[in-house]
Amino acid sequence: MNFKFMIGTKALFGKGCIESNKAIFKEFGKKAFIVTGKNSAKASGALGDVVEALKECGIEYSIYDRVLNNPTLENVKEGGDLAREFGADFIVGIGGGSPLDASKAVAVLASNNIDPVDLYKNVFENKPLPIIAIPTTAGTGSEITPYSILTRNDLKTKKSFGNEDTFPAVAFLDARYTESMSYQTTVDTAMDAFTHSLEGYLGRRSTPVSDILAIEAIRIFGECIENLLNNRLDFEVRERLLYMSMLGGMVISHTGTTLIHGLGYSLTYFKDIPHGRANGYLVREYLKYNYEAAGEKIDNVLKLLKMSSIDELGDIIDKLLPCDLTLSKEEMEMYAGLAMQQRSITSNARTVAEEDLREILRKVFNDGGK
Ligand code: NAP
Ligand code: FE
What we know:
Elements: E1 10-13, H1 17-20, E2 31-36, H2 40-44, H3 46-56, E3 60-64, H4 73-86, E4 90-95, H5 97-111, E5 131-135, E6 148-152, E7 157-161, E8 170-173, H6 183-202, H7 208-229, H8 235-255, H9 259-271, H10 275-304, H11 310-320, H12 329-340, H13 354-365
Parallel strand pairs: 1-8, 2-3, 2-4, 4-5, 5-8
Antiparallel strand pairs: 6-7
Helix pairs in contact: 4-5, 6-7, 6-8, 6-10, 7-8, 9-10, 9-12, 10-11, 10-13, 12-13
Bound molecules: NADP nicotinamide-adenine-dinucleotide phosphate and fe (iii) ion.
Fe (iii) ion binds near residues 140, 192, 196, 261 and 275.
């Protein structure tokens, strides 16, 4: 055995976790810069709880609520400049993966006045400001990963940066904040969390510890499928989805993602398909493609989900994520080419050739859609 395991985040999980641990904010300074999207922070109730805690701790704050879905370099530059001008001591990210990923970039840019494209050098003169992350979706696990995935309009794709210093220092995971999510976003983000564990488990960088986490997350996903299908999403189910998502984040912090994420980015960039949904569309063909390299593990995934075949899982995903997207030959060629440039592709269980990706896309999006 030969592996490293490290999560640089203190995770505080449970209903009311901000209220019962609010003194933690004081450990990070006197000025907080809050990074969030248009609605999620307020709609979820998380912003209200944070503001109350900051006030009680005597911490001054400023709110940046202009993070876009799939944030761009331009977007995080604006946040970074404002955080620096404000003289922030620490960053509080509130929202789905988009605001949480943006908060990591803002944390680096606030302490390093660099061109945002240099985030990808992953070496920074000054340490990023500490980040406190509060998820309002149950999908990306970004509250517990070092990754920040940003849209690169210059490269027409999304690319991730991050190092051990961009793990959030603290994550507050309270499933009440996910209750205001729409049904569709709940399903999409659950699928993102599932694919993190799936790709991490089957991928080349999997480790004994990441496998344990992935297996547990996949099992929990299986238990939640019926609830997702029937839109029966009470607090207990939402808490399990948030827990599964956190485990998935721990998995990919060690394994990275693979083929699904590598291909999915183009569906988001060019077709505006939400990240998790894009991933979900690819699961069936991803599993079939990888069976020759990871058959035993795929059989175990099906066992954990209490399913008898890849198609049984694929049919359920089709019900959760109806898809009428079709792609032209040119689009499929372009997406396959872009995915080959993603580092994640090299971690896939089966060695990937560009034509394999074209074939996967053809099966999913050109056989009349599904
Ligand atoms: P998102 O893009 O953060 O949010 C999607 C939508 O849901 C937004 O309109 C958002 O509103 C809304 N929303 C979020 N929480 C809500 C709530 N509780 N109530 C009501 N509305 C809510 O979605 P996401 O799937 O969580 O994140 C996707 C991003 O994360 C992508 O950029 C993806 O590449 C990245 N990602 C990162 C990692 C990682 O390890 N760091 C892993 C996977 C994916 P607002 O606009 O108001 O916020
Ligand atoms: Fe993801």
